[in-house]
C-alpha cells in the first residue's frame, strides 16, 4: 500500500496508523483507569472530558492560524510532542488535579494536529480524490487503533497506568520520526506580507470569518459539526459507566470487565475498517457517493442506536446497539470532512478545519456538563438519552447543506 503511493500520501497513512495506535493504547481503558485508579465519580468523569474540550476550544483557532501562516507540517509536529507529554503526565500522576492538567496539555496538542493534518495532505495531494484520501486515512487509523486496543488491553490487565505511559512515549517517538520524513512542498502562507503575529492573526481571522459568512453550505456543515460535538461527550464518557452500573458483564474465561472493554473497542474498530472499505469500493465503482445521504443516514442511525443503548439492560443487546452507534459516527466524520474541504479556500484550509474543531469542542463543553448533571441527578441512561437528542437539529441542517450539489 505504501510503496505504490507518493511520499506525502504514504507519510499521511503511516502517521494516521501510528498516531491512532498510540492514542488507542493510551485511551482504550482510560475510563476504567479514571474510575478504578484515579477514583473519579460520574460528574468528575464528564468534567475531565469538558476540561480537555475547553482546552481544544481555546487553542483551536490560534493553532489553525499558526498552520496557515507558518507551516502545517510544523503544527502537526508540535501537536505530536504535546500529545506525548500529556499522556505521560496522565499515566504517571494518577490524581484528579494532574489528570485535569494532562487534558489541557494533550488537548492543546490535538488542536495543533486537527485541521493542520487535513490541510497538509489536501495541499500535498491535490490530484487525488479527497473523499478517498480521508476515508483511507480513517481506515489506516482504525487499523492502528485495533493494534493499540490489543496492546492497551493486554498491558492494562497488568497495570492500568502502563498503556497510558507507553502510548505517550510512542507519540514522542513518532514526532521524532516525522521530523525526518514528513515533506511540505505545496504550502504557501495565507498572508504573504507579515505585520506581526497579533496583526496577522486578526487579519486571517477576519478573512476566515468573511469567507465562512459568504458560504452558506459551509455554515450548515459547521453547524452540523457543532451538533455532533453536543451529542458526543455524553456517549464517550458515560457509555462505560452504563455498562458497569446498569448491566451484568459476563465473565467468560479471561474476559473480565477490563478485557471486555478492550474487546468491545476492538470489534468497533473492525466494523469501522470494514465499513470504510465498503464505502471506498463503492466510490471506486461509481466515482462518488451522496454525502447528503451518508451524513443524514448516519446521524439518524446514531440517535436511534444511542437511545436503544440507553434503555437497554441486556448486555448483548447493549453491546450490539453500542457498536452500531459508534459505527455511525465513524462513517460520518471523514465524509463530512471531505464535504467541508470542497467549500474551503486552499490558503485557509487549516483555519477553517480548526474552526470546525473549535465548534466540535464548544459543543462538547456545553453538552458534557448538561448530560453529566442529568446522569448524576437522574440516572446515566437518561444522560445518554439526552445526549442522543442533542443531535436532532443536524437532521434539519443536512438537507440545507445538500441543496447545493455535493
TrEMBL record:
<feature type="transmembrane region" description="Helical">
    <location>
        <begin position="380"/>
        <end position="401"/>
    </location>
</feature>
<feature type="transmembrane region" description="Helical">
    <location>
        <begin position="162"/>
        <end position="182"/>
    </location>
</feature>
<dbReference type="GO" id="GO:0022857">
    <property type="term" value="F:transmembrane transporter activity"/>
</dbReference>
<feature type="transmembrane region" description="Helical">
    <location>
        <begin position="45"/>
        <end position="69"/>
    </location>
</feature>
<feature type="transmembrane region" description="Helical">
    <location>
        <begin position="260"/>
        <end position="281"/>
    </location>
</feature>
<keyword id="KW-1133">Transmembrane helix</keyword>
<feature type="transmembrane region" description="Helical">
    <location>
        <begin position="76"/>
        <end position="97"/>
    </location>
</feature>
<dbReference type="InterPro" id="IPR020846">
    <property type="entry name" value="MFS_dom"/>
</dbReference>
<dbReference type="InterPro" id="IPR036259">
    <property type="entry name" value="MFS_trans_sf"/>
</dbReference>
<dbReference type="InterPro" id="IPR011701">
    <property type="entry name" value="MFS"/>
</dbReference>
<feature type="transmembrane region" description="Helical">
    <location>
        <begin position="203"/>
        <end position="231"/>
    </location>
</feature>
<dbReference type="Pfam" id="PF07690">
    <property type="entry name" value="MFS_1"/>
</dbReference>
<feature type="transmembrane region" description="Helical">
    <location>
        <begin position="302"/>
        <end position="325"/>
    </location>
</feature>
<keyword id="KW-0813">Transport</keyword>
<keyword id="KW-0472">Membrane</keyword>
<feature type="transmembrane region" description="Helical">
    <location>
        <begin position="12"/>
        <end position="33"/>
    </location>
</feature>
<protein>
    <submittedName>
        <fullName>Tetracycline efflux MFS transporter Tet(40)</fullName>
    </submittedName>
</protein>
<dbReference type="GO" id="GO:0005886">
    <property type="term" value="C:plasma membrane"/>
</dbReference>
<dbReference type="InterPro" id="IPR053160">
    <property type="entry name" value="MFS_DHA3_Transporter"/>
</dbReference>
<feature type="domain" description="Major facilitator superfamily (MFS) profile">
    <location>
        <begin position="8"/>
        <end position="405"/>
    </location>
</feature>
<keyword id="KW-0812">Transmembrane</keyword>
Amino acid at each position: 500500500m505504501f510503496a505504490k503511493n507518493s511520499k506525502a500520501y504514504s507519510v499521511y497513512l503511516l502517521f494516521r496508523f501510528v498516531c491512532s495506535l498510540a492514542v488507542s493504547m493510551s485511551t482504550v481503558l482510560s475510563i476504567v483507569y479514571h474510575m478504578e485508579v484515579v477514583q473519579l465519580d460520574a460528574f468528575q468523569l464528564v468534567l475531565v472530558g469538558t476540561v480537555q474540550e475547553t482546552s481544544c476550544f481555546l487553542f483551536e483557532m490560534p493553532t489553525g492560524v499558526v498552520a496557515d501562516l507558518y507551516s502545517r507540517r510544523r503544527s502537526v509536529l508540535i501537536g505530536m510532542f504535546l500529545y506525548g507529554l500529556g499522556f505521560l503526565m496522565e499515566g504517571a500522576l494518577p490524581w484528579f488535579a494532574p489528570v485535569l492538567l494532562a487534558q489541557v496539555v494533550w488537548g492543546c496538542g490535538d488542536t495543533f494536529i486537527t485541521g493542520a493534518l487535513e490541510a497538509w495532505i489536501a495541499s500535498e495531494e491535490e490530484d487525488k480524490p479527497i473523499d478517498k484520501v480521508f476515508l483511507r486515512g480513517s481506515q489506516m487509523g482504525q487499523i492502528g487503533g485495533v493494534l493499540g486496543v490489543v496492546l492497551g488491553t493486554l498491558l492494562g490487565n497488568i497495570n492500568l497506568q502502563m498503556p497510558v505511559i507507553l502510548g505517550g512515549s510512542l507519540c514522542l517517538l513518532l514526532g521524532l520520526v516525522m521530523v525526518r520524513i514528513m515533506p511540505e512542498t505545496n504550502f504557501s502562507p495565507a498572508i504573504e506580507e507579515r505585520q506581526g503575529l497579533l496583526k496577522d492573526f486578526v487579519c486571517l481571522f477576519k478573512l476566515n470569518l468573511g469567507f465562512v459568512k459568504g458560504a452558506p453550505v459551509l455554515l450548515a456543515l459547521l453547524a452540523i459539526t457543532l451538533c455532533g460535538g453536543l451529542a458526543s461527550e455524553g456517549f464517550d464518557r458515560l457509555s462505560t459507566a452504563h455498562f458497569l452500573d446498569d448491566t451484568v458483564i459476563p465473565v467468560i474465561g479471561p474476559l473480565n470487565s477490563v478485557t471486555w472493554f478492550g474487546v468491545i473497542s476492538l470489534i468497533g474498530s473492525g466494523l469501522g475498517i470494514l465499513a470504510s472499505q465498503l464505502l471506498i469500493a463503492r466510490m471506486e465503482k461509481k466515482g462518488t457517493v451522496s454525502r447528503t445521504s451518508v451524513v443524514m443516514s448516519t446521524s439518524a442511525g446514531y440517535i436511534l442506536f444511542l437511545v436503544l443503548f440507553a434503555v437497554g439492560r441486556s448486555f448483548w443487546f447493549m453491546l450490539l446497539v453500542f457498536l452500531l452507534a459508534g459505527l455511525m459516527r465513524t462513517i460520518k466524520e471523514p465524509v463530512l470532512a471531505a464535504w467541508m474541504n470542497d467549500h474551503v479556500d486552499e490558503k485557509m484550509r487549516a483555519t477553517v478545519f480548526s474552526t470546525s474543531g473549535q465548534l466540535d469542542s464548544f459543543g462538547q463543553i456545553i453538552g458534557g456538563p448538561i448530560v453529566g448533571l442529568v446522569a448524576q441527578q437522574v440516572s446515566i441512561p437518561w444522560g445518554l438519552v439526552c445526549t442522543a437528542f442533542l443531535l436532532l437539529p443536524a437532521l434539519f441542517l443536512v438537507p440545507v447543506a445538500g441543496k447545493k450539489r455535493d
